[in-house]
Amino acid sequence: MFSHHEYKLGWGRSKANQAYKALKKLVVYCEVPPCTRLDAITISNVLDTSITPVREALIQLETEKYIVSCGNGYYTQKLEVKKLADHFDFIKMVLTHAFRENLYEHSKFVMLPSWDDYYLISEFLESFCESVAEATKNDRMRHCVHESNIRTRYVRWLDLQRPERLSRLSRIRGDASELLELLDRGDKDGAIANVDRQFSAVINTIPELVLEGNDRAGNTKESWLQTLSSNWAES
User: Cα 140 from chain centroid?
Assistant: First the structure.
Protein backbone atom coordinates (compact mmCIF):
# COMPACT_ATOMS: atom_id res chain seq x y z
CA MET A 1 0.00 0.00 0.00
CA PHE A 2 2.71 2.47 0.92
CA SER A 3 6.37 2.73 -0.07
CA HIS A 4 8.89 2.37 2.73
CA HIS A 5 11.02 5.37 1.75
CA GLU A 6 12.93 5.22 5.04
CA TYR A 7 14.73 2.14 3.76
CA LYS A 8 16.29 4.02 0.85
CA LEU A 9 20.04 4.28 1.25
CA GLY A 10 20.97 7.65 2.75
CA TRP A 11 17.37 8.91 2.78
CA GLY A 12 17.36 9.85 6.48
CA ARG A 13 20.19 12.38 6.10
CA SER A 14 19.13 13.75 2.73
CA LYS A 15 17.67 17.12 1.72
CA ALA A 16 14.90 15.13 0.03
CA ASN A 17 13.89 13.68 3.40
CA GLN A 18 13.96 17.13 4.97
CA ALA A 19 11.70 18.47 2.21
CA TYR A 20 9.49 15.38 2.49
CA LYS A 21 8.97 15.91 6.23
CA ALA A 22 8.22 19.62 5.82
CA LEU A 23 5.73 19.03 3.01
CA LYS A 24 4.12 16.03 4.70
CA LYS A 25 3.50 18.00 7.90
CA LEU A 26 1.94 20.77 5.83
CA VAL A 27 -0.41 18.30 4.12
CA VAL A 28 -1.26 16.20 7.19
CA TYR A 29 -2.30 19.27 9.20
CA CYS A 30 -4.16 20.83 6.25
CA GLU A 31 -2.04 23.97 6.32
CA VAL A 32 -2.30 24.43 2.56
CA PRO A 33 -5.52 24.95 0.55
CA PRO A 34 -7.04 21.93 -1.21
CA CYS A 35 -6.20 21.61 -4.92
CA THR A 36 -3.10 23.79 -4.55
CA ARG A 37 -0.39 23.14 -7.14
CA LEU A 38 2.86 22.30 -5.39
CA ASP A 39 5.34 23.88 -7.76
CA ALA A 40 8.81 22.45 -7.21
CA ILE A 41 10.59 25.63 -8.36
CA THR A 42 8.57 27.90 -6.07
CA ILE A 43 9.05 25.54 -3.14
CA SER A 44 12.80 25.17 -3.72
CA ASN A 45 13.14 28.97 -3.78
CA VAL A 46 11.25 29.32 -0.50
CA LEU A 47 13.35 26.59 1.13
CA ASP A 48 16.57 27.93 -0.40
CA THR A 49 17.55 24.53 -1.74
CA SER A 50 17.93 22.94 -5.15
CA ILE A 51 14.92 21.67 -7.05
CA THR A 52 16.03 18.00 -7.08
CA PRO A 53 15.29 17.14 -3.42
CA VAL A 54 11.93 18.91 -3.66
CA ARG A 55 11.01 16.85 -6.71
CA GLU A 56 12.08 13.66 -4.92
CA ALA A 57 9.93 14.61 -1.92
CA LEU A 58 6.90 15.31 -4.11
CA ILE A 59 7.32 12.00 -5.92
CA GLN A 60 7.45 10.17 -2.59
CA LEU A 61 4.39 11.97 -1.24
CA GLU A 62 2.47 11.14 -4.41
CA THR A 63 3.57 7.50 -4.14
CA GLU A 64 2.19 7.43 -0.59
CA LYS A 65 -1.04 9.13 -1.78
CA TYR A 66 -0.65 12.23 0.38
CA ILE A 67 -0.85 14.33 -2.80
CA VAL A 68 -1.91 13.62 -6.37
CA SER A 69 -0.24 14.15 -9.73
CA CYS A 70 -2.31 15.55 -12.56
CA GLY A 71 -0.87 16.46 -15.94
CA ASN A 72 1.24 19.50 -15.19
CA GLY A 73 2.21 18.86 -11.57
CA TYR A 74 1.41 17.78 -8.05
CA TYR A 75 -1.66 18.95 -6.14
CA THR A 76 -2.98 18.82 -2.59
CA GLN A 77 -6.26 17.02 -1.91
CA LYS A 78 -9.44 17.81 -0.03
CA LEU A 79 -10.29 15.89 3.10
CA GLU A 80 -12.75 13.16 2.11
CA VAL A 81 -15.32 11.54 4.38
CA LYS A 82 -15.00 8.04 2.93
CA LYS A 83 -11.21 7.93 3.05
CA LEU A 84 -11.14 9.05 6.68
CA ALA A 85 -13.93 6.67 7.67
CA ASP A 86 -12.04 3.81 5.99
CA HIS A 87 -8.94 4.60 8.05
CA PHE A 88 -10.90 4.59 11.30
CA ASP A 89 -12.67 1.37 10.27
CA PHE A 90 -9.32 -0.26 9.54
CA ILE A 91 -7.91 0.61 12.98
CA LYS A 92 -11.10 -0.67 14.62
CA MET A 93 -10.86 -3.92 12.63
CA VAL A 94 -7.27 -4.49 13.82
CA LEU A 95 -8.16 -3.81 17.46
CA THR A 96 -11.20 -6.08 17.24
CA HIS A 97 -9.15 -8.88 15.68
CA ALA A 98 -6.39 -8.59 18.30
CA PHE A 99 -8.85 -8.63 21.21
CA ARG A 100 -10.96 -11.47 19.81
CA GLU A 101 -7.89 -13.66 19.24
CA ASN A 102 -6.33 -12.70 22.61
CA LEU A 103 -3.23 -11.39 20.82
CA TYR A 104 -2.85 -8.27 22.94
CA GLU A 105 -1.68 -8.59 26.53
CA HIS A 106 -2.47 -5.37 28.32
CA SER A 107 0.03 -4.07 30.86
CA LYS A 108 -1.53 -2.90 34.13
CA PHE A 109 1.31 -0.41 34.38
CA VAL A 110 0.02 1.65 31.45
CA MET A 111 -0.68 5.15 32.78
CA LEU A 112 -3.42 7.36 31.37
CA PRO A 113 -2.18 10.80 30.27
CA SER A 114 -3.16 14.22 31.54
CA TRP A 115 -6.56 14.70 29.95
CA ASP A 116 -6.17 18.47 29.74
CA ASP A 117 -3.48 18.21 27.06
CA TYR A 118 -4.71 17.25 23.59
CA TYR A 119 -1.26 16.28 22.35
CA LEU A 120 -0.72 13.85 25.22
CA ILE A 121 -4.17 12.38 24.63
CA SER A 122 -3.44 11.97 20.93
CA GLU A 123 -0.05 10.37 21.59
CA PHE A 124 -1.59 7.95 24.09
CA LEU A 125 -4.42 6.88 21.76
CA GLU A 126 -2.10 6.48 18.76
CA SER A 127 0.49 4.60 20.82
CA PHE A 128 -2.17 2.29 22.23
CA CYS A 129 -3.56 1.42 18.79
CA GLU A 130 -0.08 0.81 17.41
CA SER A 131 0.93 -1.38 20.37
CA VAL A 132 -2.17 -3.51 19.76
CA ALA A 133 -1.29 -3.73 16.05
CA GLU A 134 2.27 -4.73 16.97
CA ALA A 135 0.87 -7.61 19.03
CA THR A 136 -0.50 -9.17 15.84
CA LYS A 137 3.11 -9.79 14.69
CA ASN A 138 2.07 -8.54 11.26
CA ASP A 139 4.43 -5.80 10.10
CA ARG A 140 2.17 -4.70 7.26
CA MET A 141 -0.79 -4.37 9.61
CA ARG A 142 1.30 -2.40 12.11
CA HIS A 143 2.55 -0.08 9.37
CA CYS A 144 -0.98 0.51 8.05
CA VAL A 145 -2.30 1.35 11.52
CA HIS A 146 0.56 3.82 11.91
CA GLU A 147 -0.32 5.40 8.55
CA SER A 148 -4.02 5.53 9.40
CA ASN A 149 -3.17 7.29 12.67
CA ILE A 150 -1.23 9.93 10.74
CA ARG A 151 -3.97 10.43 8.16
CA THR A 152 -6.71 10.86 10.78
CA ARG A 153 -4.64 13.00 13.16
CA TYR A 154 -5.94 16.34 11.94
CA VAL A 155 -9.66 15.51 12.16
CA ARG A 156 -9.13 14.12 15.66
CA TRP A 157 -7.47 17.41 16.55
CA LEU A 158 -10.43 19.31 15.06
CA ASP A 159 -12.83 17.18 17.07
CA LEU A 160 -11.24 18.43 20.29
CA GLN A 161 -11.33 22.08 19.25
CA ARG A 162 -15.11 22.21 19.11
CA PRO A 163 -17.27 24.04 21.71
CA GLU A 164 -18.17 20.74 23.41
CA ARG A 165 -14.46 19.99 23.90
CA LEU A 166 -14.64 19.42 27.67
CA SER A 167 -17.51 16.94 27.46
CA ARG A 168 -15.70 15.19 24.59
CA LEU A 169 -12.50 14.90 26.65
CA SER A 170 -14.49 13.52 29.56
CA ARG A 171 -16.11 10.92 27.31
CA ILE A 172 -12.76 9.89 25.82
CA ARG A 173 -11.27 9.51 29.28
CA GLY A 174 -14.22 7.43 30.46
CA ASP A 175 -14.12 5.17 27.42
CA ALA A 176 -10.33 4.69 27.61
CA SER A 177 -10.43 3.94 31.34
CA GLU A 178 -13.23 1.43 30.81
CA LEU A 179 -11.35 -0.24 27.94
CA LEU A 180 -8.20 -0.69 30.02
CA GLU A 181 -10.25 -2.16 32.88
CA LEU A 182 -11.99 -4.58 30.51
CA LEU A 183 -8.63 -5.70 29.13
CA ASP A 184 -7.31 -6.14 32.67
CA ARG A 185 -10.24 -8.47 33.40
CA GLY A 186 -9.83 -10.35 30.13
CA ASP A 187 -13.32 -9.36 29.01
CA LYS A 188 -12.72 -9.41 25.26
CA ASP A 189 -16.40 -9.06 24.32
CA GLY A 190 -16.70 -5.99 26.50
CA ALA A 191 -13.48 -4.56 25.05
CA ILE A 192 -14.71 -5.12 21.48
CA ALA A 193 -18.04 -3.45 22.29
CA ASN A 194 -16.18 -0.51 23.83
CA VAL A 195 -13.99 -0.06 20.75
CA ASP A 196 -17.00 -0.31 18.44
CA ARG A 197 -18.78 2.42 20.44
CA GLN A 198 -15.75 4.71 20.45
CA PHE A 199 -15.04 4.43 16.75
CA SER A 200 -18.70 4.70 15.75
CA ALA A 201 -18.92 7.98 17.68
CA VAL A 202 -15.86 9.37 15.87
CA ILE A 203 -16.98 8.20 12.42
CA ASN A 204 -20.38 9.85 12.89
CA THR A 205 -18.69 13.25 13.31
CA ILE A 206 -16.48 12.97 10.20
CA PRO A 207 -18.81 14.77 7.73
CA GLU A 208 -18.90 17.89 9.91
CA LEU A 209 -15.17 17.74 10.61
CA VAL A 210 -14.37 17.41 6.91
CA LEU A 211 -16.38 20.53 6.10
CA GLU A 212 -14.62 22.46 8.84
CA GLY A 213 -11.19 21.12 7.93
CA ASN A 214 -11.50 21.98 4.26
CA ASP A 215 -12.82 25.43 5.14
CA ARG A 216 -9.87 26.08 7.46
CA ALA A 217 -7.39 24.82 4.87
CA GLY A 218 -8.91 27.15 2.30
CA ASN A 219 -7.95 30.11 4.47
CA THR A 220 -4.22 29.33 4.32
CA LYS A 221 -3.63 30.61 0.79
CA GLU A 222 -1.49 33.52 1.96
CA SER A 223 0.41 31.68 4.70
CA TRP A 224 1.20 28.15 3.52
CA LEU A 225 4.61 28.89 2.03
CA GLN A 226 5.71 30.58 5.26
CA THR A 227 4.43 27.60 7.24
CA LEU A 228 6.36 25.29 4.92
CA SER A 229 9.52 27.32 5.52
CA SER A 230 9.03 26.93 9.29
CA ASN A 231 8.48 23.18 8.89
CA TRP A 232 11.70 22.96 6.86
CA ALA A 233 13.67 24.69 9.63
CA GLU A 234 12.28 22.23 12.18
CA SER A 235 12.76 19.05 10.13
Answer: 17
Q: Name the nearest CA neighbour of 15 among 41, 42, 39, 51.
A: 51
Taking the CB of residue 187, how many other CB atoms lie within 10 A of it?
A: 14
- Spatial contact of 26 and 57, defined as CB atoms under 8 Å apart: no
pLDDT, tens digit, for every residue of 8-53? 646 667 899 999 999 999 999 999 999 999 999 999 999 999 999 9
For residues 115 and 175, is the Cβ–Cβ distance under 8 A? Answer: no
In angstroms, the CA 172 to CA 194 distance is 11
Quick one: how far is CA 76 from the chain centroid? Answer: 16
Using one digit for the tens of pLDDT, what is the confidence trace for 4-19? 555 464 666 789 999 9
Which residues are CB-contacts of 158 (< 8 A; sequence separation ≥ 6)? 209, 212, 213, 216
- The answer to whether the beta carbons of residues 123 and 162 sit under 8 Å apart is no
